[in-house]
Amino acid sequence: MNDETLVKECVSGNAKAQRQLFDRFAPKMLGVVMRYINDKERAEDVLQDSFIKVFKNLYKFEHSGSLEGWIRRIMVNTALDQIRKNKKKQNNVELDDDGYFELKHESNAEEILQAESLLKLVQSLPEGYRTVFNLFAIEGYSHKEIAEELGITENTSKSQYSRAKSTLRELLKKYKIER
Questions:
Q1: Residue 91 above 60 pLDDT?
Q2: How many domains does the chain have?
Q3: For the CA atoms of the chain, what is the radius of gyration?
Q4: What span, in angstroms and rounded, lies between the C-alpha atoms of 9 and 176?
Q5: Residues 1-39: pLDDT tens digits?
Q6: pLDDT tens digit string along 124-137?
Q7: Which of 43, 70, 93 is the last residue of a domain?
Q8: How far, in whole angstroms, is CA 100 from its chain's centroid?
Q9: If DSSP states are collapsed to H, E and C, what string results for 60-107?
Q10: 46: domain range?
């Protein structure tokens, strides 16, 4: 079923179509959420909350971009909302970024292991570094957009990104992981 038909069926309340949409996008979107929320149980909660928003607002999808991109945006925003909630509960928590690495050749076991190692390193970053790194390097947000989204200054975003890169470089040297 193509995206347009799938959306139409989901909006009309077709449970099989809704399950198909979830099954098609959930694994990849969990990877997106895990870049921001490095606890799997919390990430799965965010994934569920995000899909509730997807289904609630699917009628608003206008097919002007990709369905996957639209869903991804909801996932990222929901993860950021969760980070903000936790930030309010804790003083001085830095936002982190996600470490989603796409593989060109999934059949290459060494490359898969390397990507998994890199993801773990990104997830080990402090929350602030990880969040800004993911938004800038992975999602393609500008520092201005990141600042507005996270309620920080543009310079703080740039600083967090720079520190994240520096920390990752040191971790890569320490664990001797090639880029």
A1: no
A2: 2
A3: 17
A4: 49
A5: 899 999 999 999 999 999 999 999 999 999 999 988 888
A6: 889 899 999 989 98
A7: 93
A8: 7
A9: HCCCCCCHHHHHHHHHHHHHHHHHHHHHHHCCCCCCECCCCCCCCCCC
A10: 1-93
